[in-house]
Fold this protein.
Amino acid sequence: MKKGKLFLIFNLLLVCLALTGCRRNTNAVWEDSKTAGRHLHRGVRAFLGKNTNSRQVKNRGEFMPGSSGYNSNDDFIALSDDTYSGEIAMLETKVKPPRESPGEPGSSVPGIDSFADPSTVSHLAGIFKNIQFDYNSNLVKGSDNLATVKRIADYMKKNPNTYIFVEGHCDEKGPEAFNFALGARRSNTVRNLLIDAGVSNDNIFTISYGKERPIVLEHHEEAWSKNRRVEFKVYQR
């Protein structure tokens, strides 16, 4: 109550100052008076509890679909709050970027077009396998995926002139921007795991393709699970 009175007094002072300001022309005084009047009007309405532009949110359910006041948005994707055990994720790990950018003038590393698909190179196909991900997840899960990370790390440490692009891919569900961001998190998670295993950060580059490059064009869960992946491209000097 006391704060409300002080607010009204403050606004009245604004009106007085606007009307009595020195060396101001009539139009300027009139504009200031209207502005002060609008503030005063809003203050009176707020003081009397008549501000209808906001409301109190009483519980979490008011944000959920089907509740009053919820505005549906097709681009909204609810992420799970589940916790996981026996899984690995590198969350916002600060790792130095590589010293060189592939394909830039003066770089000793060519652009990604010069990197090979390891599945077409006999001695690399069994090492640089795809890493699969669950829906909306950048967690590296499962013994097969972890074994792939270890094989790649061991090979790159023994072959320091090997450079790779880690490509993040997603399924077709969700908006484009969301999938590009998710693909980036997936590729960065794998990069961080490799660096943590002892691979030089200068030899690993990342890129996200989002949902733009599916390997299975069908529209069912089995196809989507194969498209949620990290792929590798390899360059050797």
